[in-house]
Design brief:
18 helices, alpha+beta, single chain
Length: 618
């Protein structure tokens, strides 16, 4: 079944094994004895497939496995090491079941007086208990070949004899290759004995030729989420260091998502404020050569189905505001009106009705509350107000009647009038001819569901001699450009913070692998391949990132809530609240995962170059 042909092994040009040729039986205990330093353990490492630096051929079922040692070791070999090679950050039960983490195994139950130690910590076990634990681990993996390096070296005679009896029973179904200094036990239980000296086989004794028993196949099982469980155990084995990594990365990600959220919300609020001053549906217009506008052109614009209202501003007439006093203009009693041209067709009424005459107006809810002070809003309905205008040095008033109050609160105090109402009324007050009015600037309001860009394009095609501009668009664009620059600066600093944290994780994980390379080598001896080790390392890093993201998300939402409370209490402003931006969270978190994969390149390269034999010697 297993054959060694002309095996030669050198260390620094010195031969440790010299032309070893052995044909092993299918089953039974084959012992290798000899003085210390004669090459017994080295030969065992080559047979086990954990040392690939040798000359000669290692044959299994007449096929060379030298180029497939990982697969050969994973499927056909199990170990009992002289130094036990237990993983101290795993539990007793996990150490025993280690092979099942990497491939399906038949469940075994052999007590060896260890049933009461399942909850014990590995560091508290005696040498004898660790030796028996190492045996149980090898027994858990019913491989074709079991390699034992001094399996009874740390056991008392009673337990040593018990282990040898169990090995003898196992040797009925598989090949047990044993290295030991206990010549009495070797001669008592071995079926063949090879004697070594100075790297050569100097003696071979056949005591018995056992027949292999064919055991019935049993159902096998594998530990679910095995790589995840191992990575979590590794992460928890250094809690303090893991907490520091999670905390540092959490703060970095929290800073970047919080600053980007604040800048984005602030940008939106500034743009909303701009459009509260000048509606987002408005378009200003004037002639290219700055000629005066006429009511005829205004009426033409009003014929467009996409245009709700068009109005023009008289050049020499300044609107000073409204008051309840009509005898004499008093600035202290006059409320400045920021908007007197907006349409009201789509507004809902809080009180009253819509205007039917030029002298009838609506007021916004916020304006009505200011006018009423502590009185009932309904008292404003049908109440007279005076709109004061100044022409040259003459100040006159237009008498309006409030017929309705909208349910809309506006940033600027607002009144709503019928088309051209104030022009008709001013013509009566100042006695001018409407056809001769001078107006250099006009405004158009489009439907809210209409794209302003398309309306502008259509108007520019229909009226090439006019200039049309989206009101507030340039200001909003300037705000957006400025906030983008601010966000870019914040993003750079935050990116550097998160980058340094992630590469710190990469460095720590590299040191972690260096520290645990012996444990990783033990895993390779019990069924793990390189890809398994890579997954465990990656999972541990991803768990750090995931924990940091969970904590940063919780802190992020609480910081947003806290900030909104401060805004509400300190600024007495309930109209504005910062909103959590989950889009930013997703983008930042995805970026973190990309960077963590990049930062893991050095430790993963180290895993690929990991020398199992050298790692086990440390």
């Amino acid at each position: 079944m297993l054959e060694l042909k002309h095996i030669v092994k050198r260390y620094d040009y010195q031969k440790v094994l010299d032309d070893i040729n052995i044909v092993f039986p299918e089953c039974g205990i084959v012992s290798i004895i000899g003085p210390s330093g004669c090459g017994k353990s080295t030969l065992l490492n080559i047979i086990g497939g954990i040392d690939d630096d040798f000359q000669g051929e290692l044959l299994f079922h007449d096929k060379s496995v030298k180029n497939h040692l990982a697969s050969y070791r994973r499927k056909h070999v199990s170990f009992i090491f002289q130094q036990f090679h237990l993983i101290m950050w795993l539990s007793v039960k996990e150490n025993v079941a280690l092979p099942q983490f990497f491939h399906p195994q038949e469940k075994q139950k052999i007590l060896l007086d260890l049933d009461d130690l399942e909850k014990a910590k590995m560091k508290d076990l005696s040498l004898g208990q660790r030796q028996r634990l190492a045996y149980l681990r090898s027994r858990y993996h019913l491989s074709d070949i079991l390699l034992c390096d001094e399996p009874t070296g740390s056991l008392d005679p009673e337990h040593g004899d018990q282990v040898m009896q169990l090995l003898k029973e196992e040797a009925q179904n598989r090949l047990v290759i044993l290295v030991s200094h206990n010549k009495e036990l070797v001669e008592k239980y071995s079926d063949e004995i090879y004697e070594m000296s100075d790297g050569c086989i100097v003696g071979h004794q056949i005591i018995d030729t056992p027949m292999k028993h064919i055991s019935k196949s049993k159902s096998t099982s594998k530990i679910y989420f095995s790589h995840l469980r191992l990575s979590l155990s590794s992460l928890l084995s250094h809690k303090s260091r893991s907490f520091q990594l999670v905390f540092g990365l959490c703060v970095s990600m929290l800073c970047i998502v919080f600053t980007l959220t604040l800048s984005t919300n602030l940008e939106e609020e500034l743009i909303n404020y701009v459009y509260s001053l000048v509606p987002a549906s408005s378009i200003s217009f004037q002639t290219s050569n700055h000629d005066s506008l006429t009511l005829d052109i205004i009426d033409q614009f009003n014929d467009y189905s996409t245009i709700v209202k068009a109005e023009m501003y008289l050049d020499d007439y300044e609107f000073l505001g409204i008051s309840f006093t009509g005898e004499r203009y008093q600035e202290s009693n006059t409320l400045f009106i920021g908007d007197d041209t907006s349409p009201y067709d789509d507004l809902q009424l809080e009180e009253g009705s819509y205007p039917n005459e030029n002298y009838e107006i609506l007021v916004s809810l916020s304006t009505a509350k200011y006018l009423c002070q502590d009185s009932d809003l309904s008292e404003l309905i049908n109440k007279k107000v005076y709109a004061w205008y100044q022409y040259e040095l003459k100040v006159e008033a237009i008498e309006y009647k409030i017929v309705g109050i909208t349910n809309q609160s506006t940033t600027l105090d607002t009144i709503y009038t019928m088309n051209h109402a104030y022009i008709y009324l001013l013509s009566d007050v100042y006695d001018f001819d409407i056809s001769n009015v001078s107006a250099g600037l006009g405004i158009i309001y489009v439907s809210k569901d209409t794209d302003r860009n398309k309306v502008v394009e259509q108007l520019e095609n229909d009226y090439p001699s006019y200039q049309f501009k989206e009101v507030g668009a340039s200001t909003a664009q300037n705000i957006s450009d400025t906030m983008k620059q601010v966000r870019m600066i914040l993003l750079i600093f935050s990116f550097l913070a998160i980058l340094s944290s992630l590469f710190l994780i990469g460095e720590v994980m590299f040191l972690n692998i260096v520290q645990k390379k012996k444990d990783l080598a033990i895993m390779k001896c019990f069924g793990a391949n390189t890809f398994d080790i890579i997954r465990i390392v990656l999972y541990e890093s991803l768990e750090i990132v995931l924990l940091a993201q969970v904590f940063s998300t919780i802190l992020y939402l609480n910081c947003i809530s806290l900030l909104n409370n401060i805004v509400s209490d300190v600024l007495l402003n309930n109209s504005f609240a910062f909103q959590a931006d989950y889009r930013i969270l997703v983008i930042v978190y995805l970026l973190a995962y990309i960077l963590i994969f990049i930062s893991q390149i050095p430790p993963l390269l180290y895993v690929l170059r990991l020398n199992t034999v050298n790692a086990l010697k440390e």
